[in-house]
Design a protein that fits this description.
heterodimer; A: 200 residues; mainly alpha; Four Helix Bundle (Hemerythrin (Met), subunit A); 0% strand; elongated; B: 620 residues; Cytochrome C Oxidase, Chain A; 2 domains; 22 helices; disordered N terminus; binds protoporphyrin IX containing FE; binds copper (II) ion
Amino acid sequence: MSVETHAHHEHPDVVGSRNRLGVILLLVADIAFALSMVFVYFYLRGQNVNNMWLPAATEEHAVVTPLSASPGWTVTAIVTFGLLAHFYGLKGARSKNQTQLKLGSLVAFVASVVAIVYQFNTIATAPFTFSDGAYVSCFYMFAILNFVHLALTVFISLGNWNRARLGIYVSDHWHVDIVRVWWVWMVVSSLLGAFALSNP
Amino acid sequence: MTTVMSKPVSAPGKSIIEKLNFFTALALGAISAIVVWRLALQFLPEDTEVRLFTREDKITLLSMTAWLVGFMTGIGALVGPFRWLMGKDLSHEENMFLAGKDMGIKRYFRYTTDHKVIGIQYLVIIMVIFGIGGILAMLIRTNLGSSEGGWIHPQAYNSIVGTHGIIMIVGTIIMVTGPFGNFIMPIMIGARDMAFPRLNALSFWLIVAAAVPLLWGQFLGGISTGWTAYNPLASQAPLGMDGYIMFICIFAISTMVAGANITTTVVRMRAKGMTWNRTPIFVYGVVASVALGLPAFPVFFLSQIMSAMDRALDTSFYNTAGGGSGWLYENLFWIMGHPEVYVILIPAIAALMEMAPVFTRRPLFSFNVAVMGIAGISGLSVLVWAHHMYLSGWAPLLNTPFMLTTELISIPTGMLFLVLVGTLWRGRLWMTMPTMSIFALLWNFMIGGITGIYLSDVPADAFLHGSMYVTAHFHYTLIGAGLTGALAALVYWFPAMTGRMFDKKLSWVAFWIVQIGFNIAFIGMFTVGLAGQPRRVEAYASTFNTGNMITTGGAYLIMSGMLVLLYGVISSWKSGVKAPKNPWQAKTLEWTVGYPVPLENFEVLPTVTSDPYGYGKAQS
Ligand code: HEM
Ligand SMILES: [Cu+2]
């Protein structure tokens, strides 16, 4: 190996593509996590151990009926809206339209807040207790972890909007591109949860 | 004019980055844990009669989480993200400060981002881990020195076995990728640092944070389940189990972050001209290891979150009475658990493959086969997990396919063997401790691998499962192959990391004592295992006396050898012979930068024009 001279300067595109790969790899871990949840769900549903997937009525409590699937789909709809808003903002950044960027980012942020409040509400008002069988366990698992994802989304989209507001993305906008990757994953993971929970 | 002390210019008043360090982290972690513990005691509702003890679990888990958040805040992990949020990205000066510029010894106690500092931090923490795990091992072996059970209370004994197991597994997972993957690998590929220096610091400090719950758990009934923490056993275990759960969750986050970081670094930051077939084999080993961990550890993470939910919230993932399944846990655990053994093994073998050409002065015998072997092992390793569950009754029909996949792994494993043997074959060997370690690995891993094939055979496993034979098998792979490679890596890269040579005599003495002690200890364990002694028991039938005494004797030898090695590390680091620039005359880039390595490694980034094993034509 020989050592030769070579000037040292890092272009934003280089840094951007590096960051993008890093985020995608972190998402690989997160995807493995989400797929394991889906595995847990279908495993327990398939086994229906002791007929306790959805326990029958006993003297103490009525039959456990699965939550109507709509909350899962509603959250998914809200985050999809967030993704679209973010994408609208990103297009603004690409066409050097800062106003569009700011507007899109703000709406995306608001969507993430609405989604997390809604998700919290679903958990808090769920019509069962933790020990109501395996379906319910899975419901809480999906809902709580979606809540954690949404908390991250709130943080990220708030930062994204704030930085857009401050004009940081005038010269290069690879941060905004990467935040979109996150939003896409947020939609997909909500979708997984909604799909699983509406197929009891 | 006198020279002005060049203090880093900082904003008026000390900025928050400058104030935070290990001690503020400890303080904030402890305070948060105590506050949350008191609040939880005060306000959490009592358990109902139906379900006792979930309240205690809630309190414990909440306090441990508070510890984590407090500690990570106190070390400064949140500064970067919040500065991003506020749109005030870290300035160049601040980044230089974080990298530990002109800071001396203090940078080892901070959220320092320089990969070389982190490499040393890992090295030290691994020595601590092996020290603690080793003491626990000696307690186990001393207790097993005589058949009627010893002086350790059975409950405590169980916890010692479980803690030894998990702490050593974590230690071996990070023993190569931690110190050498961090210190050496970026220089080896001609980079100035990791792709994400702050994430690098994050993955290290998370491990420090994780240690505390594990320790904490020891005072709450310990880890009585063995390192695998099978459910529903774990959901019935004392509160100490929550310490295990937190430990694993935090460690899983650390490995995910490290995996993304290291992989990005290698994919994106190799020097100009370092094409994939000019990339040193050690780099492949490190990447394969962390990339395998990337999808594997989240599964473990989830399994522990569900464990925590079962314990603290009374859900029923693993509780059959509520529709859960213990087999679910076993599946999740081993889907992570088997890839994880290769997470441990691959970088250790790759380190030895890196050294083999150096000490034979000839090219690696088939670089391509080595890469294929590593890739083959990684690919297959996710398809074999149920060989740990043959006798669990989970899916008898799947035993045969899993037997097949498991035995198939010996093919890529054999390739790695061939590469090492082929490189050594008829070479003129430069006999050093690393060279000897290659031979030791070949011997030990032959035994470890072949006994593995017996274990993967369903009828044989029906007899061997749950016996000391299994324990001996995996110690042959973990110590005999993994640790042997890691210790060789330590001696080999010691000059690059400390500027001094590792004392040759001490390295040889330690090598021989450890290897002889190791083979005595675990051959002894194979014999009692074959004779039927179950693992994880505190007392045994007197027929197993002799074998156990041999094993205990061997264990004391290993300990003495490791103490010699420790002495070697300390004395060589302090006052060893100053190392010349490239003491082994190797051709990889980490030997071009000298010692101490400048903050950003290279004045000008290197360009690579050939592969690193061009030692001329083979001279045989
Ligand atoms: C040729 C390669 C190998 C084969 C065929 C093999 C096969 C097996 C089988 C079938 C078992 C299950 C035995 C039982 O529980 O009854 C087992 C256990 C184990 N193996 Fe291997 N193995 C191989 C290599 C390795 C390597 C390289 C490592 C680590 C670096 C390793 C670590 C372990 C561990 C930790 C366990 C036991 C886990 C436990 O039950 O606590 N093995 N092996
Ligand atoms: Cu295995």
